[in-house]
Structures are given as C-alpha cells and as structure tokens.
Amino acid sequence: MTYRVVQWATGAMGKAALRSMIDHPGVDVVGVYVYGAGKVGRDAGELANRAPTGVLATNDVDEILALKADVVVHAGRLGPYGSHDDDLVRILASGSNVISINGYSHPEHWGGERLARLQKACQEGGSSLMGAGLNPGFIAEQVATVATSVCLSVDHIEIVEAADASEVRNPAYLFDALGFGADPASVDPNDLSWGPVSSLNGMYEETLSAVAHRLGMTLDRVESDHVVHATARDLEVPAGVIPAGTIGHTNWRWHAIVDGERRLTMSIHWYVDRSHLDDAEPPLWRVDVTGHPGVRIAIDMVKHPDDLSRMGAEQYGLAGQVINGLPFVVAAEPGVLTRPLATPFRADYA
Hints:
15 strands; DapB_N; oxidoreductase; 4-hydroxy-tetrahydrodipicolinate reductase; 7-stranded mixed beta sheet; NADP; 2 domains; NAD(P)-bd_dom_sf; globular
C-alpha cells in the first residue's frame, strides 16, 4: 500500500521527514504546508534537496485539508505545549490522520476538555492521532519500557539523553526555543513562563505518564528540577555566537512521582559546551533500570557508512519513526493513540 502524506512544516526535522518520504517507495507526498512566505510555491523536492516532485508548498490550510491525505505529518514550530491543538483538531476533523513529532505520545494524561476535544475531532473525521519521534517517542515509551520485560520488580528507571546542539543552524531554535545564550542570572529554568520550559515541561510530563501507564503505575504528579550551566568562553557555532557567561548547557530533568516516591526520571543534557558533562563522550541515550534484575543500556545512532549527506543519524531516526508509524495510524480505529511498543522496519514496505 502507498500512503498519501502531507508534510506540515519544513524545519530541520520536518525537512528530514520530507526528504525521507520522497525517497520511500511506500509514500506519496501530496502536499507540503509551510509557515514562511519565502517557501510558498516552492517544489517539495527543492525544499528537501531532491528532484522536482510537482508538489508545491502552500501556507493555505484549506488547500492542505482539501487534499484528503491519509496522514499529515505535523512538525510544527516548538511553542508552549498544546499550542498546536487547534491545527490538529482541524486536520483530524477533516478526515486525515495525524502523526506529530512534537509529543502527543500519551494525550490521555491530560484528560478533561483537552483530551475530549482531540477525541471528538477524531470521531468526526474517522481519524487517529499518534506521536512519533526519538525522545519523546522511542527511547522512553518503547526502549525503556520494553527493557523491564526481564524484571521481576522495578524500583526506578532513569533515561539520560546527551545531545550536542552545536550543529543546530537555526538561530531562533537554538537561542529562543532551546535557551542557549541566555543570561543564567536572568532566567529561572523551572519557571513555566520561560519559553523553553513552557515547550518542554508538558511534552516530557506526558512521556513519563506514558511509561508509568504501561508499567501499571498510578502517577501522582511529575516534578522538575532543571539546571543550566554557563560557558566560560565564547563559542562560535553555525547559528551564531554564545558569549562567555551565558547558557551553554541545559540539563532538563523530570521525575514521575508514584506513591510519594520518584520512580521514573528523564534527564536531558543539551549542550554546546562539554565541560559540565559527567562523561566526556556520553552515549546519546542511557537507560538504567534499578530492579530485580537491573538493566543498563547505552544507545548511539550512527549514519550508514555510504551516506555522505549533511543529515544526521538522529534526523534519519526521526524519519524512520514517522514512516514506520504510517501503517499503524492508518489502520487504527478513530481516536487518540498511544504508539505501540514496537513499530519496526518492514522489508515488505520499504
């Protein structure tokens, strides 16, 4: 089966998904939604550094909805978590399924009006909503959860990510969305009014909720204790200059509280300055399950040895999560989904 797909937004990750979908024999890219006026009217192939496809980008939502795509891959700009709900509701109610790369791994966590609104749109359109991604999406909801399959008991799970942000090329993303270059004395990394916190807290609260739900744990709450570190020297990166004394390393930390105790921890190190890392060469992810027995996993992603493109392994991994999720979201009954524990590569689809 070939899936008719729209790519919504073409930032770094959206462009990676678009490029990989153009290349994939099981995907027919029928539309591209863009935010910037400078991209309107450009061919999808041009935006993705591929041959012309005949599909022209638009910023008209009605044009996108009229395509009646099987799936819209939503890669909207990072903003306060939940700020894309209006777009998703409109897409879902029109009859297209949605895969979001910005969370939505377990919307049941929120309950109330927010969940009801998404569910209603799915029922109206006969559509489904599912998240896809590496974190959120892969390392916690799938890998860490499956790792407990060998455990007789689980006391605590810690998921640690360490990602070098120095190659991020979009200044707005690096400095505004992620918080690099800010004066650490002028921001509170645990204040929800600070942009990065407003974007990330809800997303990763939902991630830990998904893991807790799958492990049969009743979540009391999720609490954070984020930390930022200043760089001691000026750092020149593709997106600009991070001056000495400003934030060069963020450590975002969330803890799932179950029966009054911390049972799940997500710790994310995004850095351009390595001096505050405990490990000089950390793996991309580490999963530590304290239990009977315990489990320790270290995971890195590497590019294919023949691939000479500028795309990173993580971008390919994100695209893989999206493409391998298409059959599941299309086949699902209408509603808000939690991604299956396994959405593997299939040779008969590739």
